[in-house]
Amino acid sequence: MFAVTILGNNSALPAYDRHPTAQIVTLNDQVLLIDCGEGTQMQLSRYKVKRGKLNHIFISHLHGDHYFGLIGLVTSMGLLGREQPLHLYAPPGLDEIIQLQLKVAATSLPFELVYHALTKEELILDGPKFSVECFSTKHRIPCWGFIVREKKLPRKVDKDKAIEFMIPASFYNSLKEGTDYITKDGTVILNDQVTIPNSAPKSYAFCADTIYDERIAAIAKDVTLLYHEATYLKDLEERAAARFHSTTIQAAMIAKKANANQLLLGHFSSKYEFLDDYLTEATAVFPNTQLAIEGVTFLVKR
Amino acid sequence: MFAVTILGNNSALPAYDRHPTAQIVTLNDQVLLIDCGEGTQMQLSRYKVKRGKLNHIFISHLHGDHYFGLIGLVTSMGLLGREQPLHLYAPPGLDEIIQLQLKVAATSLPFELVYHALTKEELILDGPKFSVECFSTKHRIPCWGFIVREKKLPRKVDKDKAIEFMIPASFYNSLKEGTDYITKDGTVILNDQVTIPNSAPKSYAFCADTIYDERIAAIAKDVTLLYHEATYLKDLEERAAARFHSTTIQAAMIAKKANANQLLLGHFSSKYEFLDDYLTEATAVFPNTQLAIEGVTFLVKR
User: Fold this and answer.
1) Sheet strands (E) in B9-68
2) How far, in Å, CA of B79 to CA of B90, rounded?
3) pTM summary value
4) A76 and chain B: CB distance < 8 Å anywhere?
5) d(C-alpha A41, C-alpha A39), whole Å
6) Please, which residues have CB within 8 angstroms of residue A245's CB and are 6 or more apart in sequence?
7) Residues 6+ apart with CB under 8 A from B176
8) CA nearest to B41 within chain A
């Protein structure tokens, strides 16, 4: 299971019951949170996301609609008795705000909050089954996108073939890793005679807030699911540029240039009550587009 | 019109779709906000409160469930182009947090945020039609309650009587102030011959978070509507005391000792999904009790 659940999809001003940016990325038993606008802790409850599995939070930038919900979530985790460390990946500055807010409340968290300051494009999390790297986007203040990549999946053992070649089950894990099997009499059973490749690793690129920037297409090349902001419809291209945001068409062009499998649009301006035009405009350029509707889970799949 | 609208009624952990503390006090054309837990700006939209009339915000203390929504509300007011000054009455420390949050966002507000630090019990707002005073409560960190009082209302002119005594209409405003009228021949028409008293000024006491403290009953003596926290039901009196909170019975006892006209209970613990027992327990001590249900407006009346 590799999926993205939308908790908030609106730009700065909450409107029409749409919340500021927050997304859950689920990878098997791991839960990652990307951005944490005001009300995220309520949205987590609303959509029944398990907080106990949430150990990594990524904040793209320090505009309030991307982090004002963080302190509430973190202190609530404390009240609920969390003990395991929580890793926070965010631009420099947020740690000082959090510490100040804890200080005035005379509160200390019952768990370790591990702060990872985002300062350059790099691999920021390297787990056994997935990795996360950050990349900078062009916005009014320092801003970071994130790419979550599955690790290469082990090959699958073709059991009928393995039995036919009399390979002991104790060697199956080595087979999954791609190792050839050598029989007692020295015969080499080539790995691809008894295994089949697993599906190629999938990936999710969260492109944060950004002006139209073709560099993102290169960074997110061949990504499975690309989330790109589309604050405005295409007729407001100038306003988008002036505010370091993007339009529907621009988001779709990035997805096309990146050769993404699917595009997810979000960060909708509170100018728009209805979102139909977003889909109409974007699909004209990149057909496999979806709107990041709150509460909906999008599978990262080909 | 003098009324209190509940935007949030829960204690620290949001639960069962109940939000952290926030209340709107409406006095004719003025709107005051007391406390501003996370999500308050969404609750203002939900209950259609006019932000343009909101010029004074009061924060009781710096536990997050009483102020985490403030920065979102304030920056949204900026995005919406607010120009008139906004007065903020809060314990020292909140100004530094707000300034830091504006700094990391490279944002400046398009209006003046006037910070009034609460440091002693005093009159903090003295308007033409109402006043607000603050008083300290006993909580884990410095905490302030607020009493909003209508000013003494002008007397009403009995027009039939005024015409009978041939008092010119130009003198009516003086009559409302209680002045006697002297005719050209020197006859004194006593004010109470031609006016009737208006209703007595009403008042609202918001008693913040507090341990059981009879001093509050003296401070809020004869208040019209008393809001008192009741985090716990009566069986958890020890836990309430340990955490500097109150129970249903204690809140009702304060209302009784204060000779309040009506009691409003709030700050419900997330332990309790249903609130019926709060009302049952409190009304046994103080019959005229209401629960601070979100979205409900309570008239301050006798």
Assistant:
1) 22-27, 30-36, 54-58
2) 23
3) 0.92
4) yes
5) 6
6) A11, A209, A210, A211, A229, A231, A232, A239, A267
7) B154, B155, B156, B157, B195
8) A14
Q: Which residues of A touch B38 (CB under 8 A)?
A: 38-39, 41-42, 68-69, 72
Q: Is B80 on the interface with A (CB under 8 A)?
A: yes
Which domains, ranges and CATH numbers included, belong to chain A?
2-153+201-299 (3.60.15.10), 156-196 (no CATH)
Choose, from A17, A29, A35, A65, the residue flagged as catalytic.
A65
Q: Are A61 and A244 in contact (CB under 8 A)?
A: no
- Residue (of A55, A76, A226, A253) closest to A146 by Cα position: A226
Enumerate the H helices of chain A as residue ranges: 40-46, 70-79, 94-104, 159-164, 172-176, 191-194, 215-219, 237-242, 248-258, 276-285
- Its ipTM equals 0.90
> B97 at the A interface (CB within 8 A)?
yes
What distance lies between CA A96 and its chain's CA centroid?
Answer: 25
Paired strand residues for A90: A117
Q: Does A12 touch chain B (CB under 8 A)?
A: yes
If DSSP codes are grouped into helix, strand and coil, which group holds residue B10?
Answer: strand
The pLDDT value recorded for residue B28 is 86
- Element holding B281 (H helix, E strand): helix B276-285
- Answer whether A147's CB lies under 8 Å from A203's CB: yes
Q: How many Cα neighbours within 13 Å face the side chain of A220?
A: 37
Q: What is the pLDDT along chain A (302 residues), one digit of tens a residue?
A: 899 999 999 998 888 999 999 999 999 889 999 999 999 999 999 999 988 899 999 999 999 999 999 999 999 999 999 999 999 999 999 999 999 999 999 999 999 999 999 999 999 999 989 999 999 999 999 999 999 999 988 899 999 999 999 999 999 999 999 999 999 899 999 999 999 998 889 999 999 999 999 999 999 999 999 999 999 999 999 999 999 999 999 999 999 999 999 999 999 999 999 999 999 999 999 999 999 999 999 999 98
Choice between B136 and A154, residue whose per-residue pLDDT is larger: B136
In this structure, are strands A181-182 and B130-137 parallel, antiparallel, or unpaired? Answer: unpaired
Choose among A45, A72, A96: nearest Cβ to B100. A96
Inspect the interface and report whether the beta carbons of A68 and B68 lie closer than 8 Å.
yes
